[in-house]
Amino acid sequence: MIRSNVSCRIVTVLAVILEISATKHWYVTENGRIQPQHDSVFDMRRPYDLLGFLEQEKRRETADAIYNKISRKEVSIDNQFVGLSIVDAENSNSDCFSWDKSLADVDVHASIIIDYRLKDGIDQTDYMLYNVVANSKPTVPDCQKTFPLDFSIYTFEHLKAMQNRKNLMQHEELSLMKYLPFNTDLNQFGHQLAYSLSRNNTSWIYLNLASVYWRIRGDAYNALECSRRAIVCASRQYRDIPLLTTAGILHAARYSGEAAIILHAAIDYNPTESHHHLALGHIYTFLGDFDRSAACYDNCLKLAPDTLEAKQMKYAIFCHRFLETSLLLFDQRLRNVLSEIHAYHDWKEEWFKLYEHMLWEQNIKSATREIKLAFAREQNLHLLTINPVERSIHHIDNNIILSYMDLGDRKKIAENMLQNVHVSLHLLKNLQKQVKERSNRITKDIITELNMEYNNLFALPTRSPKYHNVEIKKGNEDFEAEYWPKISDCDSSMLMFGDGKQYLPIYLSPENKGYATHLFVNELIDIEPWKKHPLPWHPPICQSPISFNERYITHLLLDATVQQHSPDISMKPFLHSLVHTADLAEIGQRILTATKAKVAAPWVLSMLASLHWRIVGKPRLALDCLQLALENVPKEFKDVPLVSIASIYHKVGLIDDALRLTDKALQINAVEVCMKI
C-alpha cells in the first residue's frame, strides 16, 4: 500500500515536471469493458505506432490553437465591417456630398481683368478712343509697329513663355467682352483702337485694351506684345493692371507657373487689389497647390468679402480635400479588412490540413457519418467551414455535408468596395494630375528652371549689333592701291614693332554685337551696380582647356605669354563701364559669379574674363579664356576672340601671326575690325 502511494506520487511529480497531458480516449462500457472512443482522433489506424500517436496529439493541440485564432479573427472582421458602415454613413451626411459643384466643375482659367471704369485716378477721357474717319480701311491694333520694343527689364524677358511667345496658343476669351461697352462690335473696336494707337502710341490704357482685344481673338502672341508695351508705359501706380493682363495670357496658354511669378509682381505693386489674389488663387488651384490657393482666396475675401467666385472656390477646395481624405482613409480600412480576411483564410487552410491529416491517421473504417458530424459539431465547424474547407472535407468523404456561413461573400463585398474606392481615387488623381507634374514649380524647381532660362535668353543678342557687316567699296586713297605700300614707303617709315612695347591693345566688346553685358555682372547675379559683391573676391580663372586650337593659339604664343607682362591699362574703361563704382578685383568676382551661375552666353563671359587677365598683365590666363570663347562663339561673332588673340600676338612680337588672325577677323566683319584697328 505504502509502495503504491509512493509510486503515485512519483508519477504525479514527473507529470508536473515534464508537463505531460492526457486525453480522454478510453471509457468503461455498461458491461464493464474498457474500450476506445471511436469518435476520438486517437482511435488510430495504426494503434501500435507510438510516434504516430504522439504526433497526433501535437496536431490536435495545434488545431485547437488555430481554432481559437480563427474565432478571434472572425470577431475582428465583424467589428471592422461595422466600423466601415459608420464611417460611410458619416461621410455621406457631409454637406460636400449635397453640394452641386466640385472642383472639376469650376473654371480655373476664368478671364479676369480690372475694369478701368472702377479704378480710382483714371478719368473717362483716358480710355475714350479716337473717332475714326468714315469709310476708312478696317485695321487691327499692331502694337509692334506702333511702339517698337526689343527688350525691357520690366517685362520678364527671362521667362520661358516670353521667349517662346511666338509659339503660344490660347482659346478665345469671349468672356472678356463684358468689359467692353454694351453691344460693341469687335471688328469696329479693333479698328478704332488701332487708329487711337496711331495717335497716341504710348498710352498704356490703349495698349492694354489692345491686349484684351487679342485675348478675345485668341491670339496670345499679339496679346503679349501689347501687354509688354503697356507694362513699360504704365506708371508705377497702375503697372499692376497690365501685369494682371499678362499673367492672364500666360495662364490661358498653360504657362501657369510663369503667370504666378508675374502676378506676385503685380501684388507687390498693388497688394490691396482683390482681382490679383483671385487670379493667383485660380493659378495655384490649377497647379495643385491648394494651401496657397486657399490663402489667396482668403486674401481676396478680406479685400472684397462679396466675391462669390472666391467663396465657391474656397469651399470647392475644402470639399475636395475632405473627399480625398475620406476616400484614402476608407481605402486604408478596406485594405486592413482584406488583410484580415486573407489571414483568416490562411489559418483555416492550415487548420483543415491538420484536420485532414488527423482523419487520415484515424481509424476511418470504424467511423460513421454521424460520428464525423458529431466531431464537426464538437469543433464548431459550422462557424468555420467556408468554400475551401468544404472542398477539403469532400476530398475525404463525398458524403459529408456541413452547414456554414460563407465569409467568402464578405470578402467579395470588401473587394468590390475597395474597387469602388480605387475608382474614386483615380478620378481624384485625374483631377489633380497637375499636382505631381507641377507641385514644385513654384518653389525650388522653378528657380532652377528660371536660372536655365536666363542662360537660354542671354545666349543670343538682345538688341541689334552696333556695326553691321556690309561690303566696303574700294576708294581712291593711296593705301587702297593694289601695290601699296611701295618699298620706298616702307624705307621712309619709322614704325618699329620689334619689342612690342609700341603696340596698342585692341578689344572688340560683345556689347557691340547686341549683348547686354552690363546686365550679366549686375542684375542677373542679383547684385545692383551700386552694391558691393559679398566677400571674398576671387579672380575669374577660366578652366584650362584640354588642348588649344593650333590654327589660332600656337605653342609659340603659349610659351611667349608664360611670364608676367605689362598690364594693358588702356582697356580698363571697358570693364569699369560695366560697374562704375567697383574696382577691378570686385568686377573680376562678378564675372566669376556670372560664369558659375551661367546667366548668359558662355563665350561672352569668357571674353570678359580674358579682358580682366589682359588688364592685370597675365595674357597666358587670358588665352585659356579665349580658347573657351572660340569653342562656343557663333560663327558670325568669331571676330571678337580672334581680334583679342591677334592683339596678344602683337604684344609678344609675333607680328605675322597677328596679321594672319586679323585677316580672318576681317573676313567675318570688316567694318568693326577696321573701326577698331
From TrEMBL:
UniProt repeat feature TPR, residue ranges: 274-307
Gene Ontology cellular-component terms listed: actin cytoskeleton; cytoplasm
Protein name (record): Tetratricopeptide repeat protein 17
SMART domains membership: TPR
Secreted found in the keyword field: no
Signal sequence coordinates: 1-22
Keyword vocabulary terms for this entry: Signal, TPR repeat
Entry's Gene Ontology BP terms: actin filament polymerization
PROSITE patterns referenced in this protein's UniProt entry, alphabetically: TPR (PS50005)
